[in-house]
Design goal:
Chain A: Residues 40-265 form the Rab-GAP TBC domain. The complex is a heterodimer. Chain A is mainly alpha-helical. Chain A contains 16 helices and no strands. Chain B has a single domain, classed as P-loop containing nucleotide triphosphate hydrolases (Rossmann fold, 3-Layer(aba) Sandwich), CATH 3.40.50. In chain B, strands 2-3-1-4-5-6 form a six-stranded mixed sheet. Classes of the chains: A mainly alpha, B alpha/beta.
Chain lengths: 334, 204
């Protein structure tokens, strides 16, 4: 076992070196980066790798600084025009959104100390409000705050010299820039699943039907049991998709899962469906024997606290296998 | 003694303490900034009352307006509903009225409703006059409880009352076979987006 761990460590450091090399080439190859990040990335480099794969940073090294400046300046304009001047052109919908945002801010990552600070709470308020105003079809939706918190943590991490997951400390002076980066990355990712947040959550409902359909093709017996017990996907996996599994995993494992989402084009929309399928099938033996109450209690409280990174990797691999079976083969196993 | 299994639902404006009340009752837990509910949480508890025992299957629904349409799926076939407002928030009390109206017209006829004025540990910030709330509920013939999920005040008492009222209202059905809507089906509005429906055939 110790031998294996050593091997893992050396593989990891080799991969991180490759990632670093890729980051510093003049024209970064996104496909190569995707391949590398499928196996994870260390916490220090995650910030820049994600920004590239989300499409926020340009692949061209020499243009990065310039484009960052443009995007950040644009966001600062929103801050003055949309947020600071909000009382001048606020509709009733905007007021309702802001109230909801204010309700949710103290409840976001409520176990992480920096989220209790005024600086971070103000920052969340601005990002979420500006996002809501610029997305009038959905407006602010609960769950966007969860997504936002993840980018904030990942981008802050390499710039803080204290453990941001459990300590408070001086926040970096570049806080305003980080805010802009969080805004744009949040926007880019949510744009790829925007219909999840439309009124009546049409996108999520379609995804839930897809999950059920695939499960039925893989394990008809299990799905029959779900039907007999009257368990429906919406009972438990609505939250999985609405919050991209943030509520289902400890943070370090969640980040590893999102590495996986980012290593596949449209991963948040496409791979997440297969992750949901794999999660359910992972516990099929337990679920098969359980009745409604036990099934639902289990599925709403997955035992992921005991998980290691390996388990997430296994989950991702399994999801990828199903993805390759079904994604371009609508009739596979029918 | 007979055990009755029944579905109840929590309803109310966002951040009034629906989840906190349910958690306090079922697990005796309280978290100051309880995470917002997405869609609905499911909790169960077996309650002993003098007449017998009641298994409460609680659907704790999300308060955001966006989930309101989904909430109707959860109160369908429910035997009981707990409508919660925050005593420090006027608008959350106004919402109680609309929930009662909706339940009376859409839910099961004999649904038992109780109202909780939550956060009564924050008496200083109270915005809803207590006699006004009591009078309103008396007219509606609905029991009103002052609760605090934080201190636990009134929580046990309220759920016990809900359980016994449900038992009384449904004891005629005890012993009858069938699964008698212990959970209630949640139907998702089928959209036309279903991909590849109807297309059967070989794979790939």
């Amino acid at each position: 076992m110790a031998q294996e761990e050593k091997k893992d460590l050396s593989l990891n450091s080799k991969r991180n070196q490759q990632i670093l090399k890729e980051l510093n080439t003049e024209d970064c190859d996104l496909n190569k980066l995707r391949e590398l990040i499928w196996h994870g990335v260390d916490d220090k480099n995650r910030s820049i790798v994600w920004k590239l794969l989300i499409g926020y940073l340009p692949t061209n090294l020499s243009r990065r600084e310039l484009l960052l400046n443009i995007k950040r300046t644009e966001y600062f304009h929103y801050c003055t025009q949309i947020y600071d001047a909000r009382s001048e052109h606020q509709t009733e919908k905007h007021i309702i959104d802001l109230r909801q945002i204010n309700d949710d801010i103290p409840r976001t990552q409520n176990e992480i100390p920096i989220f209790k600070t005024q600086e971070i709470q103000e920052m969340l308020r601005r990002i979420l409000y500006i996002w809501a105003i610029r997305h009038p079809v959905s407006g602010y939706v609960q769950g966007i705050n969860d997504l936002c918190s993840i980018f904030l943590l990942v981008f802050l991490y390499p710039l803080c010299d204290f453990n941001i997951l459990c300590e408070n400390g001086p926040l970096p002076i570049e806080l305003k820039n980080i805010e802009a980066d969080v805004y744009w990355c949040l926007s880019n990712v949510v744009d790829s699943i925007l219909d999840y947040f439309f009124p009546s959550s049409t996108g999520i409902q379609v995804a839930l039907m897809k999950i059920e359909d695939i499960l039925f093709r893989i394990d008809q017996q299990l799905m029959q049991h779900f039907r007999d017990e009257e368990i429906e996907m919406i009972h438990f996996s609505f939250r999985w998709l609405n919050c991209m599994f943030i509520r289902e995993f400890p943070l370090n494992l969640l980040l590893r899962l999102w590495d996986g989402f980012l290593s596949i084009g449209e991963g948040f929309r496409v791979l997440s469906v297969y992750v949901a399928v794999s999660l359910i099938l992972k516990w099929k033996e337990i679920l098969r024997k359980a009745s409604f109450n036990d099934m639902l209690t289990f599925l709403q409280n997955l035992p992921t606290n005991m998980w290691h990174e390996r388990d997430v990797e296994e989950l991702l691999s399994q999801a990828y296998i199903y993805f390759s079976w079904f994604n371009n083969s609508p009739n596979h196993l029918k | 003694m007979a055990t009755m299994e029944c579905k109840i639902v929590t309803l109310g404006e966002g951040r009034v303490g629906k989840t906190s009340l349910a958690l306090k009752y079922v697990k005796n837990e309280f978290h100051k900034d309880e995470i917002s509910t997405v869609n609905a949480n499911y909790l169960t508890k077996l309650v002993q009352i003098p007449q017998g025992s009641v298994q409460l299957n609680i659907w704790d629904t999300a308060g955001q307006e966006r989930f309101r349409a989904i909430a109707s799926n959860y109160y369908r076939q429910a035997k009981g509903a707990l409508i919660v407002y925050d005593i420090t928030d006027r608008k959350s009390f106004d919402k109680v009225v609309s929930w009662i109206k909706e339940l009376k017209s859409q839910a099961e006829k004999n649904i038992v409703i109780v109202v909780a004025g939550n956060k009564c540990d924050m008496e200083k910030e109270r915005q809803i006059n207590r006699p006004e709330a009591l009078e309103f509920c008396r007219k509606m013939q609905i029991r009103h409880f002052d609760t605090s999920a934080k201190s636990g005040n009134g929580v046990e008492e309220m759920f016990m009352e809900l359980a016994s009222q449900i038992f009384e209202a449904n004891k005629g059905e005890l012993g009858q076979s069938g699964r008698n809507s212990r959970r209630g089906k949640i139907t998702v509005e089928k959209t036309k987006h279903r991909e590849n429906s109807g297309k059967k055939g070989g794979c790939c």
